[in-house]
From TrEMBL:
Domain Amidohydrolase-related, residue spans: 3-282
Superkingdom classification of source: Bacteria
Protein name in the entry: Amidohydrolase family protein
Family, per entry: Belongs to the metallo-dependent hydrolases superfamily.
Family annotation (Pfam families): Amidohydro_2
Species per Swiss-Prot/TrEMBL record: Compostibacter hankyongensis
Length: 290
């Protein structure tokens, strides 16, 4: 069973959610909905997906859950809840969404916030402790500059079940490594923190990237997190700025094959499905979804 642990849907008919959808967005400026993704999943033998929010609104999360109810291949939805609010309001919103069986995680989109230290605000930390006590999945959408604050947060919220999206978006285009790698190695020492091998092609040169460009990033992450704490994510349709869905899938598959001798024969099986099922605590799934 294969699971794409990171994809999005959006609609140009929802301007209050998707302010970034303007003609300047290029290939992204159109509706991307379940019927658009289905053939790509079929072509690459992907059984299920995790649908991740792309707007900082509860309305979008409700809409995604409605789509998930009607889309068999969506195994779970990662939604948005305001973390910078009083604990009572936070818990009310979170618990309301958790009543839906396909609500499997929460993400505050830290990359877009003006305060890089947002994750360390007192009431954000208090609300994160609520998430940790529930053992509920939390997603970190960050850049390398955020990683020192993520590390401090993890020290202050022990036990948080967290995943770093897109390898923390290293600057693959400029081949920058040192500070990113240092902090990823530090963060990997928390056994409850995972990492998504996703969103890589959009951090490289969109027109001229080569598979070799990603080895200095994927291979060290495999070494420090291990094959059992990594997940494949297409980041569709964002990935279409630099690659096809199949191109993203084959890129990671081929990189993993090159490391098969070191990581073991089951690494691909884990990274392309088993780990996502474990991290998101997905209910038993049929072998193939519609």
């Amino acid at each position: 069973m294969k699971i794409d642990a990171h994809q999005h849907f959006w609609s140009t008919q929802r301007p209050n959610d998707y302010g970034f959808l303007t003609p300047d967005a290029g290939v992204l400026y159109k509706d991307y909905l379940p019927a658009d993704l289905r053939p790509h999943l079929q072509d690459n033998d992907i059984d299920y997906t995790i649908l991740v929010q792309a707007a900082e609104t509860e309305d979008e999360t409700r809409w995604l859950l409605e789509l998930a109810e009607k889309t068999g291949y969506v195994a779970g939805v990662v939604g948005w809840v305001n973390f910078d609010t009083d604990p009572e309001s936070f818990q009310k919103a979170l618990n309301g969404f958790r009543k839906h069986e396909k609500f499997v995680g929460v993400r505050p989109m830290l990359q877009d916030l003006p305060d890089d230290r947002f994750i360390l605000r007192p009431r954000v930390l208090e609300n994160l402790r609520t998430v940790a006590n529930l053992d509920f999945p939390f997603e970190l959408l960050v850049y390398p500059r955020h990683l020192p604050y993520v590390y401090e947060m993890l020290q202050r919220v022990p036990g948080l079940r967290a995943v770093i999206d897109h390898l923390a978006k290293p600057d693959i285009r400029s081949a920058k490594l040192d500070l990113w790698l240092f902090w990823m190695e530090q963060i990997s020492t928390f056994p409850n923190v995972w990492c998504k091998l996703s969103g890589m092609v959009t951090e490289a040169d969109h027109k001229s990237w080569k598979p070799e460009d990603f080895k200095p990033y994927v291979f060290p992450v495999m070494d420090c997190f291990g094959a059992n704490r990594l997940m494949f994510g297409s980041d569709w349709p964002v990935c279409l700025q630099a690659a096809t869905y199949g191109g993203v899938y084959r890129l990671l598959h081929d990189l993993l094959e090159q490391r098969a001798e070191k990581t073991g024969s089951n690494a691909c099986k884990a990274i392309f499905g088993e780990n996502a099922a474990a991290f998101y605590k997905l209910s038993p799934l049929n072998n193939k979804a519609g």
